[in-house]
Amino acid sequence: MKDSIETGIMQTLEVTVTEEMFAQFHGEVVHPVYSTASMVYHMECVSRDLLLPYLGTDEESAGQAVSLTHSAPSPIGSKVVHEAKLVHLTPTHATTEVIARNAEGIIGKGEVVQAIMPKNTMKKRLAHQKA
């Protein structure tokens, strides 16, 4: 990790809710609002965006854990801003707290943990697995 990284740094990601982000199962829309699955994805994205500039050339990261509470709906066309804050850092893990907001207020809160490892670790692990 680069020395310039420190807890408290922040990153934001803004998305506009589209039909592809609706809560759906097996191709059937259950609710025409921003889904929890989309929220998980965007929370992991903003957390990764926060960490990437600080990885050394010999390092990579991978998502390890996500936990969140999705507390309010967000309709099509609404803007959702995800704000990640680095709250814990070790040589092998980075933890961010993420808040998701729309124009009405907070719609979700979560935590994302990313593993930090030597470059090509994932590639080497996958080489030993059979499809």
Task: Describe what this molecule looks like in 3D.
The chain has 131 residues and is α+β, with helices and mostly antiparallel strands. The chain has two helices and seven strands. The chain has helices at residues 36-51, 121-127; strands at 10-16, 22-25, 28-34, 59-70, 79-89, 93-102, 105-118. Strands 1-5-6-7-4 form a five-stranded antiparallel β-sheet, with helices on one face. A hairpin with a 2-residue loop joins strand 2 and strand 3 (28-34). The longest helix has 16 residues, at 36-51. The protein is globular. The N and C termini lie far apart (33 Å).
DSSP helical segment count: 2
Strand order of the largest sheet: 1-5-6-7-4
What's the β-strand tally? 7
Q: How much beta, percentage-wise? A: over 45%
First-residue to last-residue Cα separation: 33 Å
Oligomeric nature of the chains: single chain
